[in-house]
Amino acid sequence: MAIEIENSFDVPQPVDKVWGFLTDPERIVECLPGARLIEAVDERTFRGEIGLTLGPIGTRFMGRIHFEELDAERHHMVMTGEGRDRRGSGNVRMKMESDLREREQGGTRIRVSQSIALTGRLASFGRGGVIQSVANVMFNRFTGCLQRKLAQ
Questions:
Q1: What's the pLDDT tens digit per position in 21-68?
Q2: Which parts of the chain fold into alpha helices (H)?
Q3: Total domains, the chain
Q4: Residue 140 domain boundaries
Q5: How many angstroms from the chain centroid is the CA of residue 74?
Q6: Which CATH number is 125's domain given?
Q7: Whole-prediction pTM value?
Q8: CA-CA distance, 77 to 52, in Å (whole number)?
Q9: φ and ψ at residue 128, rounded to 5 degrees
């Protein structure tokens, strides 16, 4: 079962500065509560972990992300990820596509499209909207942190 999520937001910073942040896994992980970068497998593939609370279940995923596309000229990226719950209650696969555009009035508009697929016991939370709610909370925390970090 895949859940499709679309979001966009504005950042009052130049597109190149935002692009530099969003393509640096060490900086991204700073803005994902419960996330930890473990190792760089190569320049586009990274292993890490993230803890989430899905309804009554707290879970910790071990996995990897990979930048499938990084087009700095168009400010377009595609990232895929997969993870396995440490206790065996499910797996997750994710594909995220992001586009950054310079705004006429200054700053950057960021559009994010995600597809998240859960399997195992965790998949039951997708039916009640729990995954959507968790994704919205994480997205809001991430964008707030991004705004603060880029303003420094």
A1: 999 999 999 998 889 999 999 999 999 999 877 667 678 889 999 999
A2: 15-22, 25-30, 124-127, 130-151
A3: 1
A4: 2-151
A5: 20
A6: 3.30.530.20
A7: 0.86
A8: 25
A9: -95, 5
